[in-house]
Amino acid sequence: MSNDFTLSAEVRSDYGKGASRRLRRTNKFPGIIYGGGNNPTPISLDHNEIVNNLQNEAFFSNILTVKISGAEEKAIIKDIQRHPYKQKILHMDFLRVRMDEAISVRVPLHYLNEETCHGVKVEGGALNKIENDVGISCLPGKLPEYIEVDVIDLKLGESLHLSDIKLPEGVTSTDYTEGDEDHDRAIITVFQPRSAAEQESAESGDDSDAPAADSAEDSNEGDDS
Known about the structure:
Layout: E1 6-11, H1 17-24, E2 28-35, E3 38-46, H2 47-54, E4 64-68, E5 71-82, E6 89-96, E7 103-112, H3 118-121, E8 126-129, E9 133-138, E10 147-150, E11 159-161, E12 172-173, E13 186-191, H4 196-208, H5 210-224
Parallel strand pairs: 1-4, 2-6, 7-10
Antiparallel strand pairs: 1-3, 2-3, 4-5, 5-6, 7-9, 8-13, 9-12, 11-13
C-alpha cells in the first residue's frame, strides 16, 4: 500500500449525548477502537483531520495508524455515522488489526479502458457501473488499495460479474464464492442509450399521463386537509 495515514486521537472518559455535544462544539467527535484481543477504547477525533482524509479514496481501504495518548494502534475503518443533512461526522468505529489475522473490508473497483471499451467506442453503447466496490478478506499485509477491472473487450449488451474480478494472490471475495451462480451478480454492463427521438417520445408519453397524476395529487391533498 502506497499511502500512510496517521490519525491523532485522545482517550475519552466522558460519555453520553451531552458529552458528545460538548465534544463537537470543540470541533471534535467521539469514536471507538476495538478488537485485536484488547478492550474497546472510547476515543475522540479531530473533525477537520478526518474530513480531509475522507477526500482520499484510499483512506477507506488502508491500514491506519491511530495515535492514542502516545501509543500507536493499527486499525481499519469499520463504520462512519454521518449527520443526515449536515456535512458532519458524528461517530467512527475502528477495528484493530493483527498482521497474522485476516480482515474483511470493502475496497474500491477501478474500471480500466472505459473510453476504449468495444461496446462504447465501436458500438455506441454506454457503461452502467452497478458496483463501485467489492468485499474481500485477506491478511492486513495483502490488503489492496483497490481492485482493477478491465472492460476493453466488453460488448454491447454484455456484463461483467463478480466471478470475472481477478483478485490478487492471498485475497478472497466475501461477496462471491466460486460456483455460486445465484450470487454472481453483475458489476458493470454496456447498454444502448435511448436516441433523442426515443427520449422525446417517452417524455411525450409521460406528459399524457400528467392529468391523472394531478388528479391523484389533488385527491391526496384533500385527504390531508
